[in-house]
Amino acid sequence: MSDFPIDVIRSKRRKRTVQAALRDGRIKVMVPDGMEPEREERVVAELAAKLATKASSAGIDLATRARRLADEYGLPRPAGIQWSSRQMQRWGSCTPDQGRIRISDRLASVPPWVLDAVLIHELAHLRQPGHGPEFQELVDRYELTERATGYLMAIGAGRAS
Description:
- The protein has helices at residues 37-58, 62-73, 112-127, 133-139, 145-155; strands spanning 6-11, 19-23, 26-32, 80-84, 90-95, 100-104, 159-160.
- The protein has two domains: 6-58, no CATH class; 62-160, Metalloproteases ("zincins"), catalytic domain (Zincin-like).
- The chain is elongated and about 60 Å long.
- A hairpin with a 2-residue loop joins strand 2 (19-23) and strand 3 (26-32).
- With 161 residues, it is of the alpha/beta class.
- Helix 2 (62-73) packs across helix 3 and helix 3 packs across helix 5.
């Protein structure tokens, strides 16, 4: 579930909505009093997982990491890069004409070399929008690309694109 302790707070004033926040190193989940125990357990687990992912992604400086990788592998630096909690089918996405990259916050907990492979993939799109041979040449400069691809395939559907 999560590395943070979870406090479930039941409220008689709360009728339908559920809310969660990370405060003082604890996840506080507010639920309506009288919510069915099975539903409460499921909702608490989902919200806690989302908050834990968000907290771990906050500790990674994507901009600095992307600049370092761009310089190291001779790729363009992004104009902007950010975590995205909306990417459920892809590991990352890029808007080459704007120089913007979004990385799924699901990657916040993967090993650094896997995140680096996705970053390099997206940085390569800043130079080569498609997935043709020139693009693959850029991506293959990173020696752990194939291994990272296998790792991502093993943890679930989705891919960098």
